[in-house]
Amino acid sequence: MHRLQKRGAVEALTSEPTARERRRRICLVILVAIAALAADQVTKSIAVARLQTHEVHIAGPIAFRLQYNSGIAFSIGTGLTGPIIVVAIVLVLVVAWFARRVPTTGAAVGAGLILGGAVGNLSDRLFRGHHGAVVDFIYTKYWPTFNLADASIVCGCIIVAWTLIASGRSRRGETGVPPG
Fold first, then answer.
1. Average of pLDDT values for 141-169?
2. Domain for residue 4, yes or no?
3. Does residue 64 lie in a domain region?
4. What is the structure's pLDDT at 74?
5. Domain with 140 in it
6. Which end of the chain is less enclosed by CB atoms within 10 A, N or C?
7. Residues with catalytic annotation?
């Protein structure tokens, strides 16, 4: 019986999802993206309103400290706002295209986090009036200052990679031999 259950799970992963499953996953991507975007924008607005003149110590090396980043990760490319915006728009479109056919529910959650985070940072560059800079406010002594959009993108990438690796393992079966 256990072997039949395993084979059924493998067949479910390798078979083409139904139209209903695809719609459900797309809705999940959209809902997660909206939640990530909303959380990011609300926390950035609070940071801009409350952290202009001082930082707030949280615990140990963690504090809320307002900074603006006109570059990309680790402030690389500072001053290249125009090209960064173009690349960000292309990446949002690529993630949205990938999200149409996510293979698993986990990948849908990950894609939603990536999409919501990317749109959050892109909207900072386009609409916040900080000369194309992104609002960062989560400070740690050991890592560059970041925001919830950055955290969403990183967590989303990890989730997508994990689910794709896990579904690849399931397709091969535990012995590494394709089911069949």
1. 92
2. no
3. yes
4. 66
5. 20-172
6. N
7. 136, 150
